[in-house]
Amino acid sequence: AASYTDSSDDETSPRDKQQKNSKGSSDFCVKNIKQAEFGRREIEIAEQEMPALMALRKRAQGEKPLAGAKIVGCTHITAQTAVLMETLGALGAQCRWAACNIYSTLNEVAAALAESGFPVFAWKGESEDDFWWCIDRCVNVEGWQPNMILDDGGDLTHWIYKKYPNMFKKIKGIVEESVTGVHRLYQLSKAGKLCVPAMNVNDSVTKQKFDNLYCCRESILDGLKRTTDMMFGGKQVVVCGYGEVGKGCCAALKAMGSIVYVTEIDPICALQACMDGFRLVKLNEVIRQVDIVITCTGNKNVVTREHLDRMKNSCIVCNMGHSNTEIDVASLRTPELTWERVRSQVDHVIWPDGKRIVLLAEGRLLNLSCSTVPTFVLSITATTQALALIELYNAPEGRYKQDVYLLPKKMDEYVASLHLPTFDAHLTELTDEQAKYLGLNKNGPFKPNYYRY
């Protein structure tokens, strides 16, 4: 995302700088605290598009359902996350925060949060070492012990397991919002190593449909346009994976007139792709002819060095899945290939015969690294996260075992209903007779748990 800070000539690492906010606190580490005012404006703009969080804040003026909660968070640090953090603060929580991605932090937003008293440790373009250092600074604090975890990708949870396993005695629950992080939690649970309850927000209906499907439908084009200025009409594109993210990407590209191929391992998703009018292929069959390759699987080594060798000149390669494992970027860092940085987040990798491919964001998340995600969609995700934190924090002893849970459907419906006023939308209410006929409570939940939207 374009940031006021991209052109800064200041090469000092934020870790080597002594900075204080206007209240004299230095319990944070951001690129430049002086940008707080710019960041504050961005947060205020985001608030306009996040109606549900603002509604939660209004309700919190009376009750403080997170009083006493000490939340340690590791998510993308953007204006939208800032609205979530400040809402959690309004609900009574104390928060410490790090970034879950080395490129997606908006420096001026991190500065605004630090200025308003949040211990934030994040800047755009961290090194791998910085990344873990920031997480450690959030967790390892004299006289402060977290009792809730909000994670995106599972790195924070993993770090606490590895370095500070005793902390889990005090932690009431983990809220995780990405496919990758949820997968890691289920693995821990299976191995009997999950020692606190966890809430899988990623698979709550509101998150799945809106963040993964509708959001990617809009942000895939944005990310590609900003980085490459390309024309989509008539281009041949292969989208690997036809889950919610793949469905969104395919719909947008098809609407722009691209010729879209899909690869898939699951016969049900594959049949959906066929019904939606896409050619189902193996990557090998089309790799020589396509103009763009987009991965949306959450898997590893989906695009291998062998595939990259066979791509045609100026093929664009990018990833929309959570982690940076889908494209084997490491295999491109060899002496015979030349890397040329064209602009921020765009590299040309050049083969000895002069062929080049265009690699975006070094194989990391395209929409978060190279563009922005629609705020409204993040409002849905963030509200879901806030409600999951409230639910786990306030649950009576024994309601949740040491396992991974989905958000109760009632809460999913509540999140959706908080967003309807934006569209001046009016819900129909059941009559007593209708409710009885359907066997439902008039106030919901309206669908059984197994219903697929």
TrEMBL record:
Region (Disordered) location: 1-26
Coiled coil: none
EC number: 3.13.2.1
SUPFAM superfamilies with a match to the protein in the record: Formate/glycerate dehydrogenase catalytic domain-like, NAD(P)-binding Rossmann-fold domains
PROSITE patterns: ADOHCYASE_1 (PS00738), ADOHCYASE_2 (PS00739)
Cofactor note (record): Binds 1 NAD(+) per subunit.
GO molecular function term, any single one: adenosylhomocysteinase activity
Any one annotated GO CC term: cytosol
UniProt: substrate binding residues: 78, 152, 177, 207, 211
Pathway where it operates: Amino-acid biosynthesis; L-homocysteine biosynthesis; L-homocysteine from S-adenosyl-L-homocysteine: step 1/1
EC top class named in words: hydrolase
GO biological process per UniProt: one-carbon metabolic process; S-adenosylmethionine cycle
NAD recorded as keyword: yes
Binding site for NAD(+): 243-248, 264, 367
This protein's record includes keyword NAD: yes
Required cofactor names: NAD(+)
Pfam families, per the entry: AdoHcyase, AdoHcyase_NAD
Catalyzed reactions: S-adenosyl-L-homocysteine + H2O = L-homocysteine + adenosine
Alphabetical keyword list: Hydrolase, NAD, One-carbon metabolism
S-adenosyl-L-homocysteine hydrolase NAD binding domain segment(s): 212-373
Family annotation (InterPro entries): Adenosylhomocyst_ase-like_sf, Adenosylhomocysteinase-like, Ado_hCys_hydrolase_NAD-bd, NAD(P)-bd_dom_sf, S-Ado-L-homoCys_hydrolase_CS
Homology family: Belongs to the adenosylhomocysteinase family.
Protein name, per record: Adenosylhomocysteinase
Gene from which the chain derives: Ahcyl2
